[in-house]
Amino acid sequence: MNLHNPMRIASLALGAVVLGWTSPGMAQPTFGNPSPTAGSATSQKANESADQALYQPVVYANAGKKGPAVIIIPGEIKSNNANFLQKFTANNIADFGEVEMSSANFQVLERSNLGPILNEFQLAYNLGDPEAARKFLRMGKLKSTKYIVKFDILKTEQVAAAQQGFDGAAIGQMAGLLGVFGGSRGAAQAGTVAGAGIGSVHTSESSGVWIIGMRYKIINAETTEQVATGYTEEKMEVGAKSTSVLGVSQSQQGGVSLDTMVQRLVQKSVWDIDSKYK
Questions:
Q1: Which domain holds residue 81?
Q2: Is the full-model pTM beyond 0.85?
Q3: How many domains is the chain built from?
Q4: pLDDT tens figures, 177-216
Q5: How far apart are CA 167 and CA 163, in angstroms?
Q6: pLDDT at 70
Q7: CATH code of residue 138
Q8: Is residue 17 included in any domain, yes or no?
């Protein structure tokens, strides 16, 4: 290295400055936790549960192969579950579908960029008018579309629930009475203390399991005929438990949310599409 060359020195200095500017930006952003309980035992337990519900990207088998142009249209939600219907619309599910189909390297045409043409196509398709649907697919950006994909929710139902618990009040009273009948003041005092301790113990635990089912359909954009369909289910468990002893209580509740369940079902469906129909 020629350290006496002014141009060489200037080039090295500039490179060092550029690296200094860009290297911090290369790292993924991290964020602090302003919660007053951050780092505590309760925070650690809550975060351990939340970690199980974080988004987990799927490695699609044929992601290296570029897929055809597709449009994800809002599917149907055939569940009568009020909680699910309050949280989700067909558009929410289609949004998840766009994210995952893009991750699988399909050419996803953004619905919002297609304007009223897509709305007209959906109306024609839902009314069972294939000729009208084909007419719209020959227009503008829709010309390159090979498949129409939709994801339908067919089932959301709670299939099982269980709970158990312990209330020490009755046993505590019995311990107190045994102390009284012990015949001495010391036995009575010991019985009272034991009864109070046992009576303060309360535990409860409950679990509920839901099954959510999703169907996908692949429709030929040229003929509007169904190319393929598939169905998958996942279990969602929601649980809670609490313990209280001598005034010290502990409780925990959690489970995978409906949002996460729907996204995971979409991921399973897209994995199937990527593996079989690319």
A1: 58-158+211-276
A2: no
A3: 1
A4: 444 445 555 544 554 545 455 555 667 676 678 889 999 9
A5: 13
A6: 93
A7: 3.40.50.10610
A8: no
